[in-house]
Amino acid sequence: MSQNVDHSNSEGEIDTVMVEQRLFPPADEFRAKSQFKSLEEYQQFYDAAVADPIAFWSAQAKEHLHWFEPFTQTLDWNCPNARWFLGGKTNASYNCLDANVDAGLGDKVAIVWEGEPGETRQITYRELQEEVSQFANVLKRLGIHAGDVVSIYMPMTPELAIAMLACARIGAVHSVIFAGFSAEAIADRNNDAGAKLQLTSDGLYRRGKVLPLKETVDQALSKSPTVENCVVLKRVGNETPMTAGRDHWWHELASQESRTCPAEQLDSESPLFILYTSGSTGKPKGIRHTTAGYNLYAKRTFQWVFDHQADDIYWCTADCGWITGHSYVVYGPLSAGATVLMYEGAPNYPAEDRFWEIVEKYRVTVLYTAPTAIRAFIKWGDEHVEKHDLSSLRLLGSVGEGINPQAWMWYHEKIGGGRCPIVDTWWQTETGGIMMSPLPGAIATKPGSCTKPLPGIVPKIVGEDGMEVHRGRGGMLCIDTPWPGMLRGIWGDEQRYQDQYWSKVPGMYLTGDNARQDSDGYYWIMGRIDDVINVSGHRLSTIEVESALVSHPAVAEAAVVGKPDEIKGQAIAAFVTLRGDASEELRKDLKLHVRKEIGALAQPDDIRFTSALPKTRSGKIMRRLLRDIASGKEQSGDTSTLEDYTVLAKLRDDEE
Ligand code: WT7
Whole-angstrom Cα distance, residue 342 to residue 155? Predict the structure, then answer.
C-alpha cells in the first residue's frame, strides 16, 4: 500500500486511499490443468456472453441441466421481474442425483461427513439418491405438496442436505434457518413464510456440548400456528420432549417408506427455496429463488470458480443455513458430481487445529472459507497449522466479507503454501451464486480484490446521480443485466423488492455495496453503502482503513466506523482486537501507522481496544452497532442476528 489520496471529488464518488500492487499469476502447473488457461480465454468467453446473453445462457442451460421438457423461451425480462427458461421442466434434485447416477457416478462419494465428536460417514451418489427419495416419500406422507413451505432447523449433518433435496424433489419450498438462531427468529420466519412443516434434530454438538435444538423449536412452534408437523432427526440421543400427534422421529417415518421416488417435473420458475437474510439492519427478508436459473447458475459458477476436477475433495466450511451452503455445499457441487466434505462443528474443537486435521485426514484439495475464520486462525497462531500436512490443497476460496490484504497473504502463504491461487468471491444471498471472482487458471490475483465479473455478469459503478463514475473512483456497485441466479423477489413483499433493489438506479440491480475498478479493470469491494465515512467532505470506505490497521503486526481484527464530528462532519472511530497486550503507546503507534500507510485524512481519531467485535452469526462485523457505541448512543434497532450478546456489554465496558 502507498499513500495515494485523490482529493478531486465529484458528486457521490468515494475516495480511494488504498493501492495494492502485488500481483499473483497462477502457477504453470495449476494453469495447465484448469478449464480457463489464460486471460484471453476468459475474455473471449466473457465477451461472447455480453454480446449475446440469450444465446449464451440458452446454450449453457441446454448443455448443463437435465430437461424433462425443453424450454421454449430463454428469458422474459420485465424489469425487475425475470423469468428464465420458460416452458421448460426440470428438477434440481434430479440434476444433483439422478443425472449423476445415470452418468455412471452412482458409486462416487457425494458427501464425506465428519461430526464434531469425530464420526465419519461417506455417502455415494446412489445412496444419496435413495435417502433423498425415501425422505421425499416421508414429506408426501405428511401431506406436503409442491409449493408448500418446509422450515429446516438442523445441524450440519448429511440429513440437512437430504432434507433440502427431498423438498426439491417434490417441489416443496425449503426455508433453512441457521441452527444458531433463537426461537423468536424461527417463529418470525415460519410465520412470514407460512411454513407447514418443521424439520429439526434432538440436538447438535458445538464445542463438545450438546445444544438441545428441539427445545428451541418447541418454543418456536408454540408461536408458529401454520406448522402442522415436526420431524426430528435423532442426532445426539439426548432426552427430547415429543408432542404426540405433532412430532415424529425421522428414522421411524423413513423406515416405513420406499427408497424410490421419481423427481417431480417442475416448471423452470417453480420456487426452490426461501432464505431469510437480514443484511445487518431491519426485518429479515425472505429472498426467493426458483428452480432452473438458480440451479444452472450454482452449477456453472461452481465449476468455473473452483475449477472443478473429477478427483477433487472439495470443502466449503459454510453452514447450509447460509446461501453459501445452499449454492456451494449442496446445489452447485452436487449438480457437478463433486465430492463434498461437510463438517458439523467448531473450528477450535477439540483444539485450534481442527480444520487442518480435517484437511490432512481427507486430503482436501479445494477449501472455501470466510475471512472471519481466517482472522481467527491468524490470532490462534501458526503452530496449529504447522502441525499438519496441507500439501493436498490446490485452491483456496474466500467469501462473506472483504479479505484484508494482510489476511490474504497469510492464507496464501500459511495455508496455500504459496502455491494455491485464492479465489476471493464476491456475491450475495440475492445473487444466488458468485458474481465476481478470479477464474483461478486465467486471472492473476491481487490481495483484496475479487478481480473480474463472471461470464454473463455486467457490473456498473455509479455515483449518486446514477451516472457511471470514472475508472478508479468508488461508487455504488450495480448489475446491469439479468442473470439466471438472481433473486426473483422477496417472499410476500414485492414492493420491498422493487424499492430496495431497483429504485435508486433505474433499470439496474442495486447491490448495496460500494466498489471501484482499478486501471487493470479489477474490482475492489469497498463495503456496504451505509458504511461510508465522510471526513471533511471526503468519502472513505471502511475496508481500506481497516486493512491499514490489520497490516500492523499487533492487530488481529479491526472495524472502522464514522461518528459525528462538529468540524469534520464525521470522525473515524476504530475498534481493534489485538494479538497481544494493549498500551497507550500502541494506540499512538496505530494512528501513525494508518497515517503512514494511507494518509492523514484516514487517521483514526479514536482507537478502542476490545476483546471481541460484534458479529452476525455468519461472521460479518455489525458496524451499525459500533456506530451507535462510537457516537455514545444507546444502541437501537434489531440485534437479533448478533452472534454473541455479551460482546456488546464488553464493548461498553471497554469504553474509557
Ligand atoms: C454481502 C452479502 C455471498 C455469500 C455470503 C454472504 C459482502 C460477500 C464478499 C467479498 C467483499 C463481500 C458484501 C455483500 N461480501 N463476499 N468477497 N468481498 N465483500 O452473503 O449475507 O448475502 O452478504 O457480503 O457486502 O453484499 P450475504
Answer: 11
